[in-house]
């Protein structure tokens, strides 16, 4: 049994990790923190380094949760990456952070978060960063 947490080094990503670790402690489940850089991108400012990964694992230890950080590469289908991880890890919950977007932005760009919500085979917990 595993909880998957979508993580980017943003306030929304931090909120997702906090919520995911709380859920992991509450359910006595393992947490996999997913930082998924886009395949082929020459530079990805959202890809975390070893120090950031170690800091996330320290937060998990402090919360009393067994955790790991994974960085699977994805093409243009992040929801598919999450679904594959659900199957591989026995995932029971996905936790993601949501950011505010305008209606036009949602219409033109679509939303990976929306697709995760609609297509995931397990429940999805969404959180917002504190203002």
Provide an overview of this structure.
It is built from five helices and five strands, in the order E-H-E-H-E-H-E-H-H-E. With 131 residues, the protein is of the alpha/beta class. It has a single domain (2-128), classed as HUPs (Rossmann fold, 3-Layer(aba) Sandwich), CATH 3.40.50. The chain has a five-stranded parallel beta sheet with strand order 3-2-1-4-5, with helices on both faces. Strand 2, helix 2 and strand 3 form a beta-alpha-beta unit.
Overall mean confidence score, pLDDT? 87
Helix and strand content put the structural class at alpha/beta
What is the ordering of alpha helices and beta strands? EHEHEHEHHE
- Helix proportion: 40-55%
* Rg, alpha carbons: 14 Å
How many strands, what sense, and barrel or not for the largest sheet? 5 strands, parallel
Tell me the CATH superfamily.
Answer: HUPs
Overall 3D form: globular
Please list the strands of the largest sheet in the order they lie side by side. 3-2-1-4-5
Pfam families: Usp (PF00582)
Domain UspA: 2-128
InterPro entries: Rossmann-like_a/b/a_fold (IPR014729), Universal_stress_UspA (IPR006015), UspA (IPR006016)
Protein name: Nucleotide-binding universal stress UspA family protein
